[in-house]
Amino acid sequence: MEPASADDKLRTAGQVYKIFEAKCADCHGAHLAKPKGKFGYVLDLGRVGKNEKYVVPGNLADSEMYQMVMHNEMPGEDADVPPLTADELKTVAHWVMIGAPGQLPPGVANSSVADAPPGPPATTTMTFGGRFMNWIGKFHPASTHFPVALLLTAALAEMLAWFFKKPDWTLLVRFLVVLGALSAIPTATLGWLAIFPTRDGSPLQSVYSIHRILGTITAVWGILCAVLICLPDCKEGSRARLRFRGALFLGASLVAITGYLGGKLTFGIDHYDF
After folding, report:
1. What whole-number distance in Å separates Cα of residue 267 and Cα of residue 274?
2. Does residue 49 contact residue 102 with C-beta atoms inside 8 Å?
3. What is the 3-state secondary structure (H, E, C) of 17-80?
């Protein structure tokens, strides 16, 4: 952590306060009835600086708030303000490195919108239909658990049936694959309806695009597996069974990769870092 004088901490906290007031308070201010992400105290620097979910003093890499503004993920696409400038980013970075101080210079908070009474809800250019479809799409993460569990369990059951020579397990595998493939259709559809809040150029933008495309391919592949196992000649020891088994194991790999990318979107690029 960089050593800093009391004056430097006070001055930097005041500068960061004004930056957050201009760029963040419209979505995360205390004056909002429903602040985004249930994070409505962005102008309470003392509280923000002590919450390691957002800021790790002296560590920019682990400070989620700094990483989001640095990669232009915040302010969000629907915000009415531009991203932070290079100088503003430098100021926020310096604030984190000197310990994220919360004490403000005299008079800085007097102009704050934090204590202002709730105003009218923010307007949006999105149509009602667009907002409704985006809302439906938010059920995508919850819906993924069903096809993921079914298809991965089907792959495990198929592997055990082959290893222990249990051809009568075919009905179980067929049930799992067909149900998993059918449930993957609405899951993939919901994934295309949801709008992920990130900007072009953000590292998460490419992850988001790949996740959607690979998720759709996985759903189509699941349907192919369901068709293969339902063929009359898909019996143990046949070429049709080997064809299905290869397709199923490949499909399980696609499920795992797609889920891994979804985890990046939810928990961050380095969500598996120890």
Report:
1. 13
2. yes
3. HHHHHHHCHHHHCCCCCCCHHHCCCCCCHHHHHHCCCCCECCECCCCHHHHHHHCCCCCCCCCC
Any bridge partners for residue 56, and if so which? 59
Average pLDDT score over residue span 245-263: 94
Rounded to whole angstroms, how far apart are CA atoms 150 and 177? 7
Which tens digits make up the pLDDT trace of 175-202? 999 999 999 999 999 999 977 665 445 5
Q: Which domains does the chain have, with CATH numbers?
A: 6-111 (no CATH), 128-267 (1.20.120)
Which amino acid is present at 200?
D
The answer to whether 189 and 258 are in contact (CB under 8 A) is no
The DSSP 8-state label assigned to residue 223 in this structure reads H
What is the b/e burial string over 200-220, where b = at least 16 CB atoms within 10 angstroms of the residue's CB?
eebebbebbeebbebbbebbe
CA atoms of 133 and 142, how far apart (whole Å): 16
Does the pLDDT value for residue 40 go beyond 90? no
User: What's the pTM value of the predicted model, to 2 decimals?
Assistant: 0.57
> What's the pLDDT at 116?
39
pLDDT in tens, 123-162: 445 688 888 998 899 899 899 999 999 999 999 999 999 9
Q: Which residues are paired to 59 by β-bridges?
A: 56
Give the integer Cα–Cα distance in Å for 203 and 187.
24
